[in-house]
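Hi L., both proteins are below.
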Amino acid sequence: MSKITPLSNSHELGLHGNCKDKDEANLLVIREVTNIKIYQLSKFKKSNFDINNFSLDGYKLPNESGLSTGNENLRILWQAPNVWMIISYNENIIQEIGKQCSDSDFAITDLSHSRAILEVKGKDALNVIKKGSPLNLNNFRKNNCANSVYHGITVSIDMINDDPITLNIMALRSFAGSFHHAITDASLEFGFNAI
């Protein structure tokens, strides 16, 4: 059985929008993030587990609203009090999570096939978000994350890097087509390369 990505019928590769007479290095780059594992980790209210004892690849669970941590292969996003989203290219990440999280302390939910993720990279990446979200991004920096809406679609936004600005924007798979259209339509003004 082959895997069908959420945006396999929407994401057309190549240059789009206002690209004429622009250096390709200055265009936005948009790609679908695929072949990843996504887990929601929820700590039970009755649990006495100290989250400071949890670590994946040396990264601790963020304990403040709006924070994320990790690198290009692993992201840990604060989603709500005692709720985190773990996104990883490591196929065996669930075993690493399971070693540290007992069933009596945590609920672990596999969300891997329920999300569409677009990576938007370039100096105008935040302007793309500003076109469709009420989120205040003036102080958004590397390792910040937020849940918001984008043209009426619930999204999670994670700033992976700030030089160049690199955002992972995640929506429910059922909204993948509309989500992709909204992001790419907002990107046309700046010009983008879909890879």
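That was the first. Here is the second:
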Amino acid sequence: MLVMKLSPLFSSGVACGFPSPADDHKEAALSLDEHLITNPPATFMARANGDSMQGVGIFDRDVLIVDRSLTPGHGDVVVVALDGQLTCKILDRRLGQLIPANDKYKPIPIWEGQELIVEGVVKASIRYHRGG
């Protein structure tokens, strides 16, 4: 079940260098549900496990926002069931393989007759910096 909660959004952004006292202007409330989940019935969340996708900013324990309604395209980050095992990789339609975003791992070829189900396209990921 998805629950919507509105939180304030600071329109001027947050300085990641030295803080600016002039940067305290609030904008309208921001709903993370509306921002991250555009099609709730087709969206699910999954927790990343491992380091094979670090090159695209997905780290161990991140929460993936996955949309089943999107058509997976070449270069999309996808969650797939490959021979019954879920994995998150970059879809390479041209070479017919799943590409990890970490040089420690090899691409996974997709063979004819292999059971491959694209569960959805990863739209976003959430990383906890404390707790979670």
